[in-house]
Structures are given as C-alpha cells and as structure tokens.
Amino acid sequence: MSPPPPPHDRRLLLAVDAPSLLHRNHHARATSGLRDRSGRPAWALHGMLRQILDAIDQFTPDAVLFGLDDRESSVRAEWYPDYKAGRAEKDPALVEQLGRAGALLDALGLATVTPPGLEADDVNASAAAWAREHGWNCVIVTSDRDAFALIDDHTRVLRLIDGGIGGSPLLTPARLHTMYGVAAEHYLDYAALRGDASDNLPGVRGIGEKSAATLLAVAGSMDVVWADIDACGGETLVAAMDSWCEERGVRRIGAGVVRKLAAPDARERFDFNRRIMVCRDDVALGITPDVPGTPGLLPLHPDRVARVVGHLDVVATTDLALRVLTQPPTPSR
User: Fold this and answer.
1) What is the sign of the dihedral through the CA atoms of 113, 114, 117 and 120?
2) What's the gap between Cα 170 and its chain centre?
3) Average pLDDT of 52-74?
4) Cβ(66)–Cβ(108) under 8 Å?
C-alpha cells in the first residue's frame, strides 16, 4: 500500500449517527408538528437532514455515510438481556420516522449502513477504520459519547448539543483531554470504569468519573492497573496516585481506589462493560470512492435532491440542500 497523503491532501468522510440525531430532533421539534407532502410525521427527519446539511456546508466532505441501528436484533442484547433496559418507550411517531430514515437517505443518493445485529456506533468505528486505512480524514457526527474512543489525529467527533452544528464542540485528542482529563486511547477503559446509565451498565462500584480519569492519567491503561494489583496488591499504583495528587494539591485517593478495584467483582464488571462498549470496526461500508455514482459520494444529482428533499415540504431546506449537496466539495477544510 502506498504511504498516506499529507493531512492537507486527505479526503474527508463524514460519518453520521442517524439514530442519535433523529432522537434529538424528535424531542426538540415535536411541537412543530411538521408533516411531509404525504401527511406523515417528518419533524425528526427534517431536523436530522437540516443538521447534516449544515455539517456538510461546514466541513465540505467528499463522502457522507449514515449508520443505522438494526432494530430487529442485537448482539449486545443477546449477551446482556438488560442492555438499555429502563429506557422510556419510544413515541410511535419517532419509531415511524426511524423506520423511514434509511429510505429517505438512500433515495437522496447518500450511503446508509444497517449492520446485522449491530448499531450505528459500529458503523462509526468502521468508518474511522476505513478512513485510516485509505488515507482519508473522518468526522463523526453524533450526540453519543461512545464515539470519543475513536478520536485520533485523523478522526474528530462533532458532538451535537443543544446549540446545533454551529454550537457543538468538535473534539480532537487535545480537546477531549481538556474536557474530560482522559486521553482518547484510554477513553474506552474510562467508560468501562464509569459505566453508562443510558445503556443500563453500572460502573465499577465506587469509581466515578474523576477517580477513573485520575487512575488512567497515572497508570496509562487498565492492563497496568490489573498487573500491579496482581503483583503487589496495588502498592506501586497507590504510591503513584498519591504522588500525582500531592503534586496537584488535592486529597490522596490511591488507597481507596485500589481497594475498590481489588473488590471481588470489580474486574469482572470492568471486563463486561468493556466487552459491551467496544465498537466493531470491521463492518462492510460499501464505499468505493473511485467509482462515479457510488452512494454517499458528493455531489448528488440536482433533480434527485429537489424531489426527495422537496417531499418534506420546507422550501428553505430544499434550497439549502440544492446548494450544499449538488456542488463539488471545495478544499476549504
């Protein structure tokens, strides 16, 4: 394989976590009651599309890929039947729009991937891996923190918050560390320690976000932590953590953290969480950038864009889509 191109020559893949955007826009825009020309609910679909048009306008990608969840089966739920248990039942209008999202995006000519038994998070991870292998950059658009583990020198995460595309943080390795105190390559360990209430995954008992971040800042990885606990009951780790705390003028926490990690179920809980949280990066994406007309490659055909986006019956969005989706990407990124 030829060496990767320099950063300024890399093409850009925009990977979109479609379910997370649909959920956010459903709750934010339900009061609008927007319906398409067929009379079906369309506020979540329209909100998602509008945000993606803004993202494409900002980042000028060469290709756009949407990840969707398999809504019929789940490998993670087979491993852990209580996975995501406790979430509120979805509004039927949201369920209906989730079901239509793939057809809408496919009709536009954008690329969608629904991996059997997997989730949009796995598509995100596979997009980052594909971009790395092919010498591209990748921007992942999501409201989910799971993608933070994918951040590296060529993969950034635009985490959508209430401010929309323009008001959302674009996370690089440096910015992630500033915000969370955790290196991107250690984020998965951090999440496994902390747990994830939204997925019904308790963390290691007694280990919160601050202590998890401190632990990983000192030890670097959980492999080092477990090895020290096995070798000497964590004495080296206690000393290192306490020294770290003293240098910063904060309370020493080494002995307490090690005691909690040495509890009988701590390692089992960590390993279980990590197994559930890790994202597959080998999903087939079907991206063939050298084949004209391949789904996901920009620009799109104007007639197609006008017909599909026009069906949502929002003139301003159709005009924006025609401007953003039908012009060749510019090297402004």
Assistant:
1) positive
2) 12
3) 96
4) no
Report CA-CA distances (Å) from 120 to 50, 105, 128, 191, 257: 19, 15, 12, 18, 34
pLDDT tens digit sequence for 261-281:
999 999 999 999 999 999 999
pLDDT given for residue 292 in this prediction: 85
Residue type, 46: H
**199 and 182 in contact (C-beta within 8 Å)?**
no
CATH number for position 30: 3.40.50.1010
Considering the domain boundaries, does residue 332 fall inside one? no
Count of domains forming the chain = 2
User: How many alpha carbons fall within 13 Å on the CB side of residue 162?
Assistant: 2
Are 142 and 124 in contact by the 8 Å Cβ rule? The answer is yes
- The DSSP secondary structure of 180-221, one letter per residue, reads HS--GGGHHHHHHHHEEGGGTEE-STT--HHHHHHHHHHHSS
* 20 and 98 assigned to the same domain: yes
> Whole-number mean pLDDT of the chain?
94
Domain that holds residue 92: 8-180+280-325
Note whether residue 25 is domain-resident. yes
CB atoms within 10 A of CB 71: 12
Same-domain pairing of 130 and 27: yes
Q: Is residue 330 part of a domain?
A: no
Question: For 149-176, what is each residue's pLDDT tens digit?
Answer: 999 999 999 999 877 888 899 999 999 9
- 96 shares its domain with 49: yes
Query: Does residue 120 share a domain with residue 207?
Result: no
